[in-house]
């Protein structure tokens, strides 16, 4: 059940929610906002999950947006402060749990250790039962009893880590397995299913605890402030250079479709470019049938070549996250280009195309580059000037009139020679050349960055996240 909102303020409440969704990076247009208002007239406002799914159906375009949406929904449409009537002797006296702070555990004089032990026993029963609503009620009570921090002038604070530390739900796995499995099911498919069920229920418990902490914090400090800190950036807005391990899989899924989009654009260009120069004789001959008027023109056929791609990528530690995903793009583009040649460098350059054979695992290929490729020649710090010179000396024929050159790196030279003349010559000999830089544009030219100088001889593009990489692919 959601917290009641006065009828007169419902429209304003929805407007605030839509604004928060938009500010979180989810594009919401006027028509979608109107549809959201229409949803309020057709769903049961007392059915919180029905409202959640109804608004999601009109506000979201991609599944990746759902986690962000759910966090905001829980802040703007929280559970009612008054828990539903309990059964089996586990209820309260009906007073709001936030105000009274009463527990369904009547343990006079018990200390924190005793209380935590009793709640662990109750948690074990709830996890075995799998009742999601009961688990959410338990999470609310656990936050009230175990999650309180030291009072401060700004109000009472609650912390999810205090609750999880006191309950230690991960230590209940063996007891849960014993309760879910029969005697002869150990080691087989039944145990795998049971372990997956336990993981899902423990994840639901953590989510319920975190949601309750956010709800209480929002009541103290305001929804807008909590939303800014609680909502993680959407996957396509996560900076490559700051991506955490939990973001890697989602980012890989976001980068993969970019190659297909680029392939479609290249295919369209090839179709449109099949007609060459005007064939004057055929055009005049055809015009004789229309009184000399060239109604239909004829062109000489043009031999269409698939473009070639050369990728020159900085794989030093400072841009490791960025090179990871751009090399993924390189791998995916191989089937759409006549020849994809990949070169990696730190303070010298080596060709790494051999690591990106069709069907190769990209993560494994990138790991092999670090182990086997000859990319470090001196001290392991980026040296763009030397890297460009080595590339031009050893693979001069790699760049030609049909070649698209793609340079990936932050352009930080460690105050060494940037190698501008060599890069300018490569750009001049290529069909097209672009440089993707994972640093914000405002930092170009600061410190040891030569990005502004490189930008004078090559098209320098800011590419900090998957959204900007997608925009680059679209305009390439």
TrEMBL record:
SUPFAM superfamilies: vWA-like
Coiled coil regions, renumbered to chain: none
Region entry Disordered, spans: 84-110
Name used for this protein in its record: VWA domain containing CoxE-like protein
Organism: Blastococcus mobilis
